[in-house]
Amino acid sequence: MQDVPDPGFLERAWTWLSAFVLLSWKDHTREFLYALAGSAWAVMRLAGKTVESGHVGVKFSFGRVARTCEPGFYPLVPVLQVIRIVPSRARTLDLPRQTLATDDGLVFEVDANVVYRVSDASKALVEVRDYEAALGQVLSLSVHEVLATLDRSSLRVSARLDAALQSAMQERVAAWGIGIERCGFTSIRPLQQTTRITQLRGRLRTRARVFEALVDHDLAPHLALGLVGSQGRMVARTRALRAVERRSRESAELRNLTHRLDSWLGSKDKSLLSTERSAFLRNAREILLARR
C-alpha cells in the first residue's frame, strides 16, 4: 500500500510560510518596497525603451537593423530586441590643438571645430564603430590636408579656408550618414620660435632697404653700414681679450681639478681629510658655475 500524505501537512506548511512572510514584512518593510520598485523598473526597462525629443533611435532585432524610431515609447522583446539612441540635434566637436609645418618650414598652431548633425542614424551606428571619435580623426586629417601646401602668407583665418575644410570633411563623412553644417578654423597662430624668425626676417629686410637708400644717396657703403648698425654688439678689444684669458684660466683650473680627482680615486690611501674634500668640491662648483 502506498503511504497517504498527511492532509494537514500542506495546511501547516502554508501557515508557517505565511507567518514567516508576515514577520519578515513587518521587520523589513522598506527593503521589500525598494526590491519591488527595482524589480518593476527592471521589467519596464527590458520590456520597452523611450526615445526622448532631440534624439532618434535605431531598433535592432536579433542583431539586425529593424527600423528607425522617432521620439516615443517602443515595446521590446527582452534580450532579443534593443534600441540604440543617438542625438538628432546639431552638435559641435572641437579639435585638440594641432601643430603643423608650412611649405616654407615654419611651424604653426591650429584650432578648428565642426558643427555636425546625424542625418541617418542607421548608418552612423553601423558604418562606423564610434562616429564621434572618427569625426575627430577625420577633422585632424582634413586640417593637415588643407594647410599642408600653404605658405606663411596664406595661413590666416578666412572664409576660403573654412569652405575648403568643410568640403574635405563632407566628402569623407557622407557615407556615415552625417551632415556637416559648419566647419572652420578658430585660430591659426605661429609658435614663439616662428614669430622670432619672421620678425628677424622683417628687420633684416628693413635694414637692407635703408642701406640701399643711403648708398643711392651717394653715401659710402662703410658709412651707410655704420648708420644702419648690425645685429651684433660691439665689444672692446681689451674686454674681449680679458674674456679669452678668463676662459683659458678656468680651463686650466678645471684640468688641474680633474687630474686631482683621478689621482684621488686611483689612490688606495683613504687618509684624505674632509676639509680638503670640501675645498675640492667648492672650487669645482665655482668653476663650473662660471663656465655656464
Description:
This protein is 54% helix and 21% strand. It has 292 residues and is of the alpha+beta class. It has 4 domains: 75 residues, no CATH class; 100 residues, Tetrahydropterin Synthase, Chain A; 34 residues; 47 residues. The strands form 3 sheets. Strands 6, 7, 8 and 9 form a 4-stranded antiparallel beta sheet that branches. Strands 3-2-5 form a 3-stranded antiparallel beta sheet. Strands 1-4 form a two-stranded antiparallel ribbon. It is elongated and about 130 Å long. The termini are far apart.
Quick overview of this protein structure:
The protein is of the alpha+beta class and 292 residues long. The chain has nine helices and nine strands.
Oligomer: single chain
Sketch the major β-sheet. Answer: 4 strands, antiparallel
- Determine the fraction of residues in helical runs and give it as a percent range: 40-55%
Radius of gyration: 41 Å
Order of helices and strands: HHEEEEEEEEHHHEHHHH
Helical stretch count? 9
CATH architecture of the largest domain: 2-Layer Sandwich
Per DSSP E runs of 2 or more residues, the count of β-strands stands at 9
Number of domains: 4
CATH topology of the largest domain: Tetrahydropterin Synthase, Chain A
Report how far the terminal alpha carbons are from each other: 112 Å
